[in-house]
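haha ok so turns out i had the wrong file open the whole time. this is the CORRECT one, sorry everyone. sequence first:
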Amino acid sequence: MAPGEIGVDVFGDIEEIICKEYRLVAPEPVKLEVQKLSRKRGKEGRAAKIALELMEREGVEIIRTERMEGDASIVELARRVERPVIATNDKKLREGFRSRSVPTLFIRTEDHVKLEGDIR
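then structure:
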């Protein structure tokens, strides 16, 4: 939800950090979770609507996964994609990916995206 909540240009920052061709994908359960949140009132609902609009505008490809829980579907998709770079602010997910040397992008100090790990 961070882009809609704090106004970070996540996709612009990602492009600057990666500096090579890449494909934006998200597991279907994550999109379903964001759609559910978008029906809520208030800040969280507005942020989810913005996230959905950004996913559409930026051409994020939605991939089906066997796992239907958001975090588990991210882990599954990371295992299926060649040379993944994961974007998440979830501390537990970041720690798990760090332990497997999978690079992660996350929002740092509410104003920019930071890369943890090495993109080759």
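The chain has one domain: 2-116.
again sry for the mixup
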